[in-house]
Amino acid sequence: LAPWLGHLMVSRQETARPLLTPGEVMQLPPDDAVVMVSSVAPIRAKKLRYYADANFKRRVLPPPPLADG
């Protein structure tokens, strides 16, 4: 070795790992979701709260009346 390098050694290595571990999925923010559909790669998405979005509130139907008896 050249004397100016001393004993310093640097190495890099790539290792495969899941995009999200089970622990990371459990720690997702409440507004995030993982959408899984067969034959399609999983999608990380933001949850849409229809009851909190003005555009969707208008589309929500009132609950059906309860039957007596």
Topology record:
Layout: H1 22-26, E1 32-35, E2 43-46, H2 54-57
Antiparallel strand pairs: 1-2
Question: What key phrases describe this protein's structure?
Answer:
2 strands, little secondary structure, 2 helices, 69 residues, 13% helix
Strand content: 5-15%
State mean pLDDT (0 to 100 scale): 85
Q: Which structural category fits the helices and strands?
A: little secondary structure
Count of runs of 4 or more consecutive helical residues: 2
Helix-strand string = HEEH
The largest beta-sheet arranges its strands as 1-2
Overall geometry = elongated
> How far apart, in Å, are the first and last alpha carbons?
91 Å
DSSP E strands, number: 2
Largest sheet: 2 strands, antiparallel
Task: Report the helical percentage.
Answer: 10-25%
C-alpha Rg, in Å? 26 Å
Low-confidence stretches: none
Structure write-up:
It holds the Pfam family T4SS-DNA_transf. The protein is elongated. A two-stranded antiparallel sheet has the order 1-2. The mean pLDDT is 85. It is built from two helices and two strands; from the N terminus they run H-E-E-H. It is largely without helices or strands and 69 residues long. The longest helix is centred in the middle third of the chain and has 5 residues, at 22-26. Helix content is 13%, strand content 12%.
